[in-house]
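User: Last request for today: this protein with adenosine-5'-triphosphate, please.
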Amino acid sequence: MDKERLQEQRRVDNVVAKIKKSFKKKEQEYLKAHQETSSVEKNYVQNAKINTFEIDDRIETNAEVQQQKQLVAKNVETETILKGQLTTLNDLEKSPYFGRVDILDEDEQTPETLYIGISSFVDEKQNFLIYDWRAPISSIFYNGTLGKVSYDAPSGKQETDLLKKRQFLIQNAQIKNMFDTNETVGDNILQEILGSASDEYMKNIVATIQQEQNIIIRDTQSDLLLVQGVAGSGKTSAILQRIAFLLYHSRSELNADQFVLFSPNLLFSHYISEVLPSLGERNMRQVTLAEFFSQRFEGLNVETLFDSYEKRLFPSKEEHKYKQEKETASFMEKIKNYIHDLKTDDFQFTDIMLDDQVIFDKELIRATYASLPDAMSPSQRFFETKNLLIKKLKLLIAKETRKKWVLERIDSLNDEEYFTLISDYKRSRFGEVAEEENYLALKIVKDRFRTVYDAIYNNYFLDVYRQYSAFLMKNLRGSEISFNAELEIHRLSLADCAPLLYLRDLLTGGGQNQKIHHLFIDEIQDYSLAQLKYLKFAFPQAKLTLLGDSEQALFSDIQEPAEFLSNLKKTLNVKKARIIQLNKSYRSTSSITNFIKAMLPDGNKIQAFTRPGKVPKVLLANDYSDAIKKINTQIAQLLNSNSTIAIITNSMEECKQIYRKIHSIRPVTLIDNTARAVPQGVLILPIYLAKGLEFDAVIAYDISAHNYQNEHSLGTLYTICSRAMHELVLLSIGDVSPLIQKVPTKLFSVEHQVILPYKN
Ligand SMILES: Nc1ncnc2c1ncn2[C@@H]1O[C@H](COP(=O)(O)OP(=O)(O)OP(=O)(O)O)[C@@H](O)[C@H]1O
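Assistant: Here's the final one, the structure of the complex with adenosine-5'-triphosphate:
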């Protein structure tokens, strides 16, 4: 070991010893906090048990229990914080840092040496032994080349002289690799990291963030940050790091609950779930578009992207046309205009019923709405109508309390019913019997009219579905037929969700979440402009970070990036928009990336990371049973050097067919849309569930001309191939797709004697 490395190792030993000491101290604090929580909890349980029998004692006990509850919550929070700190210290113990910079400030004589890791660490004298990677000064580790550099500090731009930049790979407190570099972050360590096997969870990239990724991570100015990056260029990695960065820099104003990430599917949510905790941060909220819509249309079966993808394989021409129209931003504008011009007579009000009885008929509701000034916006008028209806309901309830049935009901109450009704209200408070009777009558009637109140509160007096249908009839005549037919069987197609919600929210004034500060959307190419417009409306305070690869479009044709960007900017109408392109692909070996590049019309822009590997292999099968044989042989071969092999298909049906044939031969996992995690081994899954994921080896199933006829399916084929990290096998039953035929033959090998109509 050379002298310098020995010196560095000595420093590592020294720092690790201090981290261990600090860990022990924190552990004591944690144990103490834990004991406190347990004792408060015990106390709380005992208090909750006693004195709840006697009605009069309930109120006091409740107050006490509430106090204890708050105490437990506070203690649990302290415990969680300490536990998080222990986890971070534990991680630092194994790998305290990954970078070092030596800098010389203008007014200084001697250089300063700073070490950079996943979290800061100070010794007892408050000396910084490790700087957090998110600290302003740390940015020069990722950004700067040696010489004069600048970084953004809270006090403004700072300049310094960067004298040395050193990278470390430290495992179990031992330096495994270390070297000095003049580049931003050198290739050596990256090579080592990218060459390793895939994992159930995505890893953080903190030690090897690349310059252009660093820009995405540290941007705090843009209202819309659009990252257009080729497959495997680290878009997802960069935004997760970005979330950690934003949380660190706005610790006092922001917490993880104010971040929402729209992810492509539940497998993906699980896959990325460890990145933020590994950086010492809590996870943000995650939701898929399907979940988001389903929550808003209770009782309806909302079509998912996956249903729509499977259906897309056989769409009717007419349906396709309607769907395309509903996905445009201009369709959303039509909704806005429709509502603006909507006459009172055109509102689809509906009677409010209680059992079989009409409580407020629709004409009364219409008259109430009509009585309000025209100058009010529809949502204000709607809100006022709601208030007026609630007032009317209160009058009705007051009148009803005097009815005979109510008195009869009071007389027939047994003890239990009586105490339930009176709940914690003290009997002694009633001056006279009549007062108690009035109280009970009001409770009984209110209970009886609860559903009416709920109906008003939840806006059920407007039939939004009929309203939307009326809108369709006016603006996309014919499309209301299938909408109504689907609704009959409680189904809602995906293309209708955004316009329908928009219509509902504009009319009723709801649906907006003002609390979310940052909205992240991954795989943006799978969202229609109508959906994006709605999300912007639903999260009006949120800054947007949108990531995508317009060429990985599964659900629509590939769009020119420039056209996509300009449409997006126009639709979302934001002030400070910034677009960042990531063209270097890190996931796959250069052989796989070069193969993929050749498939795409503008593939030249993709830069392969120089990691050598085998060229992709194209296998030609004569028929289905030959294909299954070939899959089995390939799996056996690939398993020699790969731990996860994914057979990726174009549809669930294909997955099931393959699974039926091969699961008796070897252990395989069929992944469907109920799966929450991706195990290691051999997997079979359709491409839409593999979005955003990666596997050691991929077998692209049936890339024949039959399955991938033309450029409409290029997005799917490209996405499948780009899931492979180390090896890619493409299997075709019969002639290969013309999309593969245009790839130069030197970029892949062919296994079969059938002659291919090569052009090159
Ligand atoms: N700077 C980096 N250092 C180390 N690994 C990186 C870096 N950038 C990307 N990677 C790795 O490259 C792979 C692809 O990254 P990621 O999934 O974030 O890309 P993506 O652009 O979201 O991909 P896709 O659009 O194809 O799903 C991951 O294994 C990730 O860890």
